[in-house]
Amino acid sequence: MNFSAISSEDKQAALSELRSITADFAARGWFPGTSGNLSLRVGGFSPDRFHFAIAASGKDRSIGNHEDFLFVDTNGEPCETTNLKPSPETMIHAKIYRVTGCGAIFHVHTVYNTMLSEYYGDQGAVPAKGIELIKDLGIWEDDDSIQIPVLPNYRDISKIAKLISGSLKPEVPGILLRNHGIYAWGKNALEAKRHLESFEFIFEVLYRSLLLPPGPAKKG
């Protein structure tokens, strides 16, 4: 679908949804400085030709205004004349959309996801097992376990984008960049938000578990 064929109502609805979720995440402290970016696909789900709204580069997410987002195409290039610049990480969003077919991607930097991505960085994945919120990722197994991929955080974003196809796990709707942050996605903004919240809960549990002393010895 051509960008010009997308209705103004659909564009404004996407922007309104992104601004609402941005305000929510900012209130939780998930956008320190000018970090993080959220995006939402608009106008169809073709794997080869699509458009999405994404947070502009260099904006303080805690201060909402009408120039927080812009629309870009499959290659991350602006679809309209604008003074706003897409973040270099737009390339990562575009690749995730292309590979997964998802409808929304949310990227945040938190203390827990940053520290765990570094702690498990050499392993290439953060392991999680038996945590209830894993079910909110759509995994319903007794004593379920997942491996959340950790990718190296290269300065050259194109090098990261090239790793995405071979790193994603179909059952895990998220990836970490080492010592940087998480990208979580879903079929729409509501599902992406739920997945991100679940990941952040899992990360906090894992981090706090590392601080606990050994548990009491089992009897028998």
From TrEMBL:
Provide the reaction this enzyme catalyses.
Answer: 5-(methylsulfanyl)-D-ribulose 1-phosphate = 5-methylsulfanyl-2,3-dioxopentyl phosphate + H2O
Gene Ontology MF terms in the entry = methylthioribulose 1-phosphate dehydratase activity; zinc ion binding
Q: What cofactor does its activity depend on?
A: Zn(2+)
What InterPro entries does this protein map onto? Answer: Aldolase_II/adducin_N, Aldolase_II/adducin_N_sf, MethylthioRu-1-P_deHdtase_MtnB
Q: A Pfam family this protein belongs to?
A: Aldolase_II
Pathway, per record:
Amino-acid biosynthesis; L-methionine biosynthesis via salvage pathway; L-methionine from S-methyl-5-thio-alpha-D-ribose 1-phosphate: step 2/6
Keyword hit for Kinase: no
Q: Where does Zn(2+) bind?
A: H107, H109
Gene Ontology CC entries for this record: cytoplasm
Q: How is the cofactor bound?
A: Binds 1 zinc ion per subunit.
- Write the record's keywords in alphabetical order, separated by commas: Amino-acid biosynthesis, Lyase, Metal-binding, Methionine biosynthesis, Zinc
Q: Which domain of life is it from?
A: Bacteria
Q: Which residues form the Class II aldolase/adducin N-terminal domain?
A: 16-207
Q: Does the keyword Glycoprotein apply?
A: no
Q: What is the enzyme's main class?
A: lyase
Please give the biological process terms from Gene Ontology that the record holds: L-methionine salvage from methylthioadenosine
Q: What are the EC numbers? A: 4.2.1.109
* Family under the similarity heading: Belongs to the aldolase class II family. MtnB subfamily.
Please give the NCBIfam families that the UniProt record associates with this protein: salvage_mtnB (TIGR03328)
HAMAP family per the record? Answer: Salvage_MtnB
Q: What is the documented function of this protein?
A: Catalyzes the dehydration of methylthioribulose-1-phosphate (MTRu-1-P) into 2,3-diketo-5-methylthiopentyl-1-phosphate (DK-MTP-1-P).
Recorded protein name is Methylthioribulose-1-phosphate dehydratase
Q: From what organism does this protein derive?
A: Fontibacillus phaseoli
In the UniProt record, the gene name given for this protein reads mtnB
